[in-house]
Amino acid sequence: TGSLQSKIAKSMLTCSSTSTSPLVVHITKLLSSTDGQSFSAFGRIYSGSIAAGDKVRVLGENYTKEDDEDESFAIVSGVSIPQGRRKIGVGSGSRVGAGNWVLLDGIDGAISKTATLTLADDNSNNNNTSNIDSEEEEPLQIFRPLKFPQAGNESVMKLAVEPLNPAELPKMVEGLRRISKSYPMAQTRVEESGEHVLFGTGEMYLDCIMHDLRNVYSSGTATTTTTTTNRSNSGVEIKVSDPVVAFRETVSESSSLQCYAETPNRKNKLTMVAEPLDDNLAEIFEGGKVDLMGWDNKKVGRYFQQKHDWDLLSARSVWAFGSSPTHGTNILLDDTLPSEVNKSLLNSCRSSIVQGFQWATREGPLCEEPVRSTKLKILNVDLADRPIHRGGGQIIPTARRSVHSSLLTATPRLMEPMYKLQITCSSSGILDAIQPLLVKRRGYILGDSAVAGTPLSIATALLPVIDSFGLETDLRTFTQGQALVSSVFDHWALVPGDPLDKSIVLHPLEPSPPMHLAREFLVKTRRRKGLSEDVNVLNYFEEGMKSRFLMMQKHEEE
Question: Which residues contact 256 (CB under 8 A, 6 or more apart)?
């Protein structure tokens, strides 16, 4: 992610292994041992050399020059060269140079998925005398985390898991940690209700994860000589919920009110509004094509002004992305005027306001799902003169509250993930037969084409992920094996209906009409997370805003 003109980059481009070359290793995957209890880090040496006994600096995916929280140190206990299903160990006195793919033992505890390795400062038993840390003018930049566009780049299907025996919870948690290391697109999370949630790309992916979680990674007593049956017996029995999908929250209009929030000490006040983001901007941010942390203010301004026709004031007032600071799909703008706001005071609280914004977009107001494709503008700020009265404890929750109230007054909507299906069948006539099967699940066929030189036809279709459970089995049964389907996450689509419409009555065990789906998803998601079934919008407003909001609602009803 750094400059190609730096000394480190030039050493990497020439694959230099001299004693003065800085060590740079890109760890791309963690490979588990036979018993599933430890991992070997698989990566390539781009510069320098490495040997067993070296102390290395491990930089995780979230490491930046400004924030070194995702940094740790480890000692390499073993080095080997992978060759197919086998590996060749390297002697303790030998060093492996640049250009080689290696397996490193003893450093997996500091790595979650991918990492960048360099030598630590206090290495005295190696030949590399050049340290990156000593080059203060050239701080190391990490390798970008791996993306998987062929798999949709996102894990949108999730399961809630819990052990059948509560005493085995620590063993299951350790198994989930190992699953996150072993599967590149698997994610684990603990909800506020205490349930452990596992994210994957699809049914087959989650099925493989659950098999390994039960039989491999949760068996604390397994050894390399343990048979499969014994390992299964020593694993954890796990209860699994029905599969569900992740949602996103967004807005479809601009905020109807200028929403403000006051700090608990009543000495600070933030006013914001929310708007929908321009088309395709969320995908651009998600792809990392805009580097807010690396670009200066003028470059950011030129980009938005030239590429997206923003005015100069808005283009140069971009503060942050959310919820991720580098790949967030929401944007925060400073729309205040110097004649109305003390900019020096505002800039002193900038980091706290950004933290509150990112917290709010990480857990939206509807059902605590991430917010997507929204633009938040700071319109006015009243701040206390004394720094003690405008600390992070006062500003961060206030910024979050202001963001949430802005979203709720901007016609909030839910978004659901969509699968892109590729259906291969033996004749085009079968496509007409399976069309009702897709329509029943809210899907539709985009088009079909014949495969040259074969009697096969391939159709492309879109289908909501939440309605895809069991589709492959139904399709195979319905066509008697004459059609096969593969699915991959494609995009986020708006769920029809208003999730805040309290006039909708949901009937249990009955399918809801399309315009009631947003309300149904909201209620069921909040119920599953242990929240109240409905969103009380007034709880997010200050006392002065409540009366204005009620008057506006009454006027709209009339």
Answer: 409, 410, 552
Closest alpha carbon to 251 in 329, 321, 311: 329
- Alpha carbon distance 119, 22 (integer Å): 8
Distance CA 269, CA 443 (A): 47
Q: How far are the Cα atoms of 376, 465, 471, 472, 488 from residue 203, in angstroms, in the given order? A: 36, 10, 10, 10, 11
> What pLDDT score was predicted for residue 224?
35
Quickly tell me which residue has 């998925």 as its tokens.
113
| Phi–psi pair at 375, nearest 5 degrees | -120, 120
In whole angstroms, what is the distance from residue 50 CA to residue 332 CA? 43
Report the distance separating Cα 40 and Cα 443, nearest Å: 43
* Residue 172 structure tokens: 């299951």
DSSP string, 327-394: T-SEEEEE---TTTS-HHHHHHTHHHHHHHHHHHHHS-TTTSPPB-SEEEEEEEEE--SSGGGG-HHH
Residue ranges in the chain modelled with pLDDT below 70: 1-3, 5, 122-139, 151-152, 219-234, 428, 558
Q: What CA–CA distance (Å, rounded) separates 60 from 64?
A: 9
Q: What is the pLDDT of residue 103?
A: 93
Tokens found for residue 55:
């102390």
pLDDT in tens, 320-333: 988 887 788 899 99
CA–CA distance, 164 with 226 (Å, rounded to integer): 23
What is the pTM for the complete model shown?
Answer: 0.83
Backbone angles phi, psi at 162, to 5 degrees: -155, 150
Q: From 79, 77, 236, 105, select the one nearest 166 (Cα to Cα).
A: 236
What lies within 8 Å, CB to CB, of 542 at 6+ separation is 260, 261, 262
Distance from C-alpha of 316 to C-alpha of 330, rounded to nearest angstrom: 16
Provide the β-strand partners of residue 449: 458
Cα–Cα distance between 249 and 274 in angstroms, integer? 13
The pLDDT tens digits for 483-521 are 888 899 999 999 999 999 888 888 888 888 889 999 999
The whole-number pLDDT of residue 137 equals 46
Q: How far apart are the first and last CA of the chain?
A: 56
